[in-house]
Design goal:
The chain is α+β, with helices and mostly antiparallel strands. The protein has 3 helices and 8 strands; from the N terminus they run ααββββββββα. The protein has one domain: OB fold (Dihydrolipoamide Acetyltransferase, E2P). The termini are far apart.
Length: about 160
Amino acid sequence: MSFKRISLIILILVCSKPLWPCSCDWIGPFLKMVKGSELVVRAKVLKYFTIKVNHGDHKAMDIEIMEIFKGQEVKKTIRVWGDDGALCRPYVNEFTIGKTYILALYKGNENYEEDDYAISNCGEFWLEVKKQIVIGHITNKNLKMKRQRMKLAFFNGLLRGVLNR
């Protein structure tokens, strides 16, 4: 192969978006994941947000904080970044606009706003809240088990107990 072809191939590989998706194992239920998270909130999804960058779209969601269980945040509305196809995060369209979730978040490591957050997909980092019932793998140690349902008031006490240990 000529030097030009090799150089072109190297340039394409270096400058392009990774061709393989993130790979991570499910490492545990929500009550395990919250221990390492920076911010744990009950929040309502307000809208999706997209920016265009060289290698594709990056998508986020704006959420309205209803309750803070762990961490500190002065803003009532924050931005949470999801997956772009190569990160170990859920796509934000998995979260329905107008619905409420309990989310275990960490500070985003992108070069966006320094006070933005991200959510992982490598464990149970979010739970759905429907009519005062929390739904998801709250304590299940096996992803194949049926999603648990728990009253919000009972869950709040359980969560606070885990976070205060």
